[in-house]
Every structure is written in C-alpha cells, then in structure tokens.
C-alpha cells in the first residue's frame, strides 16, 4: 500500500512538472508551436488516463470542469494538426 501511495505521489509530481513545462512552452514558444502541442498531447493523455482510472475505481463520472478542459485541449490539438 505504501508503494502504491508513493507511486501516486510521484505521478502527482510528474503531472505538476508537465503542467509547468506546458505553461512555459506556451509562454516562450506560443500555442501554435509543435513543442507546445506535443506537451499538450502528453498532458491530455495523462489527464484522460487519470480520469479513466478514477471512473473505474470510484464508479463515478469525472467533474464536468475536467471534461470541459480535456475537450478544450483536444480541440486545440485538432486545430494545430489541421493547420499543418
């Protein structure tokens, strides 16, 4: 159980670092740069995996705000790919 807790803490730290890198990439490179969108894709993947795991374990849907943010991120990625 303590190993699982430590793994969860590590994932939280990784998510925070990824979110900081995404914010930095947006600030420095802009929303239309490939590095920003690659980080956004990774962030979205981790976020959707976390929502899925939570739904499986709690048998409850995710918060609507989390779903809306995921949809917004997916729309940004779609617009980026469409512009290539």
> In angstroms, what separates the terminal alpha carbons?
46 Å
What is the overall number of helices?
3
In one word, what is the shape? globular
Structural class: mainly alpha
The sequence of SSEs as H and E is HHH
- Give the overall pLDDT as a whole number: 88
Residue fraction in strands = under 5%
Q: Roughly how much helix do the residues carry, as a percent range? A: over 70%
Task: Pick out the low-confidence regions.
Answer: none
Oligomer: single chain
Q: Based on DSSP secondary structure assignment, what is the total number of beta strands?
A: 0
Largest sheet: none
Quick rundown:
The protein is an all-alpha fold and 84 residues long. Helix content is 85%, strand content 0%.
Descriptive account of the structure:
- The chain has 84 residues and is mainly alpha-helical.
- The protein has helices at 2-28, 34-58, 64-82.
- Helix 1 (2-28) runs antiparallel to helix 2.
- The longest helix has 27 residues, at 2-28.
Main features:
84 residues; mainly alpha; globular
What is this structure's SSE topology?
Blueprint: H1 2-28, H2 34-58, H3 64-82
Helix pairs in contact: 1-2, 2-3
